[in-house]
Amino acid sequence: MKSLFLGLDSARLLLALKTCLAIVLALGITLSLDWKPSFMAILMVTMQTAFFGATFKKTILYILGTLSGSMTGVAMIAMFAHDRRLFILGMVVLTGIGLYRLQKSREPYAWMIFLVTLALAGWLPAAHPSAAFDIAVMRATTICVGVIVVYCVHGIILPVRAGKAFERQLSAFVDGCRHIHSLVSSAVAGNEPDVEALRRAETAQIKTIAALRSTLDAATVDTKRFKQFHVGYQQLIGQLQDLLLALLSVRSSITSSRNLTSPIMGDHLHSTMQMIDGELRGLASDLVRERDAEALNRESTTGESDLGRLDTSESLQDAMIADQLNIVASSAAKVRAALACVEDPGQTSPPPPSPTREPFSLRSVQVQKAALGSVVMLLTILLFIQTQWPMGLSLAMIFLVLAICFNCLMPLMMISRQMLLSLLVGPLIAAVLYFGIMPRIDQYVELIPWLVVVFVPLLYWQSNPKPQASLLAMFSSLFLIALLSLDEQRQSYSFSSFFEMWLGLCGGFGVPVLIFGLFSTVVPEQKFLTQVRSFFAGCGQSMQSLTNTPPDSPATTTTIQSGRKQRLGLIKQMHMWSRLVNYRRFPDAYGRRTQAMVESIQRAALWLESAEDSRRKSVDSIPDPLRDPYQRLYDTCAASFQSIADALANLEPAPDLPDTTARIRDIESQCAELRRSAAENDEVQASVLRTMIATAHLRWLANAISDCCDNANHIDWKEWNRNHF
């Protein structure tokens, strides 16, 4: 038992305790005011997020959706209460419009709450239209008071602000860069490079970059300075990624040099590494300083003059490493300068680009999903009417709308198991309280300890990083609250009413799951494979398209930016679908293999971005004798991406990739020969050096592609595709 408590996550436990306190306060307030308790208690459950900023933003959207949905529901009752058919048709059409906007809006959560409130204000009083206004007012009033409770509990009692989490992640990223640099310095000193430690550090840094972006979005809500300087911090994250790429480039060059020729680097490289270490230490100390224009003036120079005295005449490899160290120092200097003035009020950030608007089309996926949701709603209504389903046109409709909304955001079959299982977990706990505990107590105060015992484990599990577990816990809590039917003055206990309410919940969730399950072919295994295949095919197409455009043209910039955006989206989808795969249907190692696959894809995306930047900067300066060998190496990398994509499309193992080692050695030998023949020509020397750096980026990209190929071949894709049935 002691080990169980010691293994709990303190942050998740604190969040669960605060949410449980909010539920207890919400139930106490609503019972004392004779309001419907479930409205506010459900709000407390759904508002639980990791950071106060995300919670605060959700409360604003919740209020907007509640107020608009309540007014619309009352209007529908007022206009069509006299004609049942027109009312049903109007609600179905209005729900379809809301489902379409749910998918197109940048704030889908507000539209989801609008649709749920519309169902609550429209369907609950449908049999008694005179009660529509009272229900709408009670709903709106309860939610507004509940938002105040949420703010007091999560915003005042030990608030977890995303701004502080962002600062911790920023510090962790800088420490990670220093760790990578220390490992590289050890290799420079003549020690054997710790390849495994470098790989782990690289993977951790890539994950931290992604976490920084997501945490910054939450920090813009709960921390004023991050909201004011959001664009500046976004640019800072981009420069941190450039610093990471520069460090990884040096690491790859040194480890490759050690593996090929095992040289001991010169003293000038040692001193340069020490100088960069000082820059990184300075960057770590900069994190606790003021970030304005005066802070920038206080910063000392980064010692670029020392870099200019590097002797690069010993070997081409040393010259390339020295130039890369120069890039690292320059990147560190840019990060320090950007960090020092990121909050300078005198600097104006460019406005964020407006989102692109897609033209309306009846054939779009959004319209099809909205139409399908409306049809499912209409069929379910007819089923409830014909079978006289218990609470079919009241409570069941609310959860029906919720299920349809989830299907528009993600395939409902992804979470169908959790939804159906919650129909057992929540009611089972509610039955124990409803029939075993509550009849023996007289006041709400006596029920509070039991509520804590029941809700804290559910709320702790709700903060689980796995979406399936989180949804299971959240739905179980919602059903538990709905089935308790608390009433301080008129509490009654009836098995028939409890069972009818449970049947209503089953109808609201079970019927859409059944209908969507009959026609849905979307499964996590298949979607994960599709995203992986799209990633490799997109990388190959992006590289090929860059060969047909000038490096400095706007088309090249657009291609690079669109490719990066597409890859980030695909990697995000891979993470989501890989978490939803049921690995119990596969051999034990498939979970680890899938994770290794995603990590190798992240590294490939990072090195592809580096190779694209290097090519854009260096392709025009490559000497004529080296242009064709470099282009052949570039085309080989693009063909390797496409080869893996074609193999995945056929569910076959990826074939042996083209050998890039011989091409790289050929370019290196030609560079060395050209450098010796033009020893007095500084322009040729610089051109050869840039060619070597561009070639090195392609070599690291080729290594990353090879890792992806190996990880892809560790998975039997035919078995993977067969097991999802």
TrEMBL record:
<protein>
    <submittedName>
        <fullName>Fusaric acid resistance protein family protein</fullName>
    </submittedName>
</protein>
<dbReference type="Pfam" id="PF04632">
    <property type="entry name" value="FUSC"/>
</dbReference>
<feature type="transmembrane region" description="Helical">
    <location>
        <begin position="501"/>
        <end position="523"/>
    </location>
</feature>
<feature type="transmembrane region" description="Helical">
    <location>
        <begin position="443"/>
        <end position="461"/>
    </location>
</feature>
<feature type="transmembrane region" description="Helical">
    <location>
        <begin position="468"/>
        <end position="486"/>
    </location>
</feature>
<feature type="transmembrane region" description="Helical">
    <location>
        <begin position="109"/>
        <end position="128"/>
    </location>
</feature>
<feature type="transmembrane region" description="Helical">
    <location>
        <begin position="39"/>
        <end position="56"/>
    </location>
</feature>
<keyword id="KW-1133">Transmembrane helix</keyword>
<dbReference type="GO" id="GO:0022857">
    <property type="term" value="F:transmembrane transporter activity"/>
</dbReference>
<feature type="transmembrane region" description="Helical">
    <location>
        <begin position="419"/>
        <end position="437"/>
    </location>
</feature>
<dbReference type="InterPro" id="IPR006726">
    <property type="entry name" value="PHBA_efflux_AaeB/fusaric-R"/>
</dbReference>
<feature type="transmembrane region" description="Helical">
    <location>
        <begin position="61"/>
        <end position="80"/>
    </location>
</feature>
<keyword id="KW-0813">Transport</keyword>
<feature type="transmembrane region" description="Helical">
    <location>
        <begin position="391"/>
        <end position="412"/>
    </location>
</feature>
<feature type="transmembrane region" description="Helical">
    <location>
        <begin position="367"/>
        <end position="385"/>
    </location>
</feature>
<keyword id="KW-0812">Transmembrane</keyword>
<feature type="transmembrane region" description="Helical">
    <location>
        <begin position="12"/>
        <end position="33"/>
    </location>
</feature>
<feature type="transmembrane region" description="Helical">
    <location>
        <begin position="86"/>
        <end position="102"/>
    </location>
</feature>
<feature type="transmembrane region" description="Helical">
    <location>
        <begin position="140"/>
        <end position="160"/>
    </location>
</feature>
<keyword id="KW-1003">Cell membrane</keyword>
<dbReference type="GO" id="GO:0005886">
    <property type="term" value="C:plasma membrane"/>
</dbReference>
<keyword id="KW-0472">Membrane</keyword>
